[in-house]
Amino acid sequence: MYQLINKVKEVSPLVVHYTNEVTINDCANMTLAIGASPLMSYSYEELEDVINIASSVVINIGTMNTNHLDLFLKASKYANKIGKKLVLDPVGVFASNKRQEIVKKLLEEVKFDVIKGNMAEIKFIGGQEVKGQGIDSHEECDDIEYLKKISKKLDTTLAITGKTDIIVNPDKVVKVHNGTPKLKSVTGTGCMINSLIGSFLGVSDNNMDAAVMGILCMTLAGELADKDDVAIGSFKVNLFDNIYTLTEDKIRDFGKVETI
């Protein structure tokens, strides 16, 4: 699994993003920092052209722009049609009726390889009532079997961020124990994880490995970036620097990965 970072740098897979307008620049730079190639689009006209050449596609509903909602669905369905890897981030799905509506439609009509979200988002799409404010989660979950059931129901790998990050498919559970609270103080780190997962999906047929690596690279880089308890501006710069300088050996030495 850890050798996937070498493959990303060697292949430089193209990750097409239909993503959050607030964080789009950071997502592009994060994709570049890990060694992949970003393409950011909101165009109906080029949809088939760019997805045809993509290694993976990221769908992120973070910025609810009415003009983009049908685009997200069409891009996802076309990616399915031609067999491209797909990541969904149902950002703040519990926050409004419209978010719930678009995510419900996406989940009914599209097969996603990885769904990444915080615990509240994942529990909500699994059918539970949750506690959340805006797009922020106040949820944790110790019921691993319940998470496996959501994964099986949606036929996907779940990449769940929180105090401990949990990656789940119907047969396997991995916990990542790296990280720092400062990751929550930088807008878009969750969106950037989508970019990392998309980068690894672009070079791997193993969705679980790609999801673990995406989360592990972000949390480990965050932990290393915060080793001197720097202020938040310096932390963000250090975060990108540490993503850029990650190696297979560094991930093996400092990654805290638990397989259940």
How would you portray this structure in words?
With 260 residues, the chain is an alpha/beta fold. It has a single domain, classed as Ribokinase (UDP-N-acetylmuramoyl-L-alanine:D-glutamate ligase, 3-Layer(aba) Sandwich). 48% of the residues lie in helices and 18% in strands. The chain is built from eleven helices and eleven strands. The strands form two sheets. The chain has a nine-stranded mixed sheet, sandwiched between helices. The protein has a two-stranded antiparallel ribbon with strand order 6-7. Strand 6 and strand 7 form a beta hairpin. Helix 9 crosses helix 10. The model has no long low-confidence stretch (mean pLDDT 93).
Number of helices in the DSSP assignment: 11
The CATH class is identified as: Alpha Beta
For the record, the count of structural domains works out to 1
Which range best describes the helical content: under 10%, 10-25%, 25-40%, 40-55%, 55-70% or over 70%? 40-55%
Q: Total number of β-strand segments?
A: 11
How are the strands of the largest sheet arranged?
Answer: 2-1-3-4-5-8-9-10-11
Q: What is the name of the CATH superfamily? A: Ribokinase
Rounded mean pLDDT is 93
What is the CATH third-level topology name? UDP-N-acetylmuramoyl-L-alanine:D-glutamate ligase
Note poorly predicted spans: none
- Mind telling me which CATH architecture this is? 3-Layer(aba) Sandwich
Beta percentage is: 15-25%
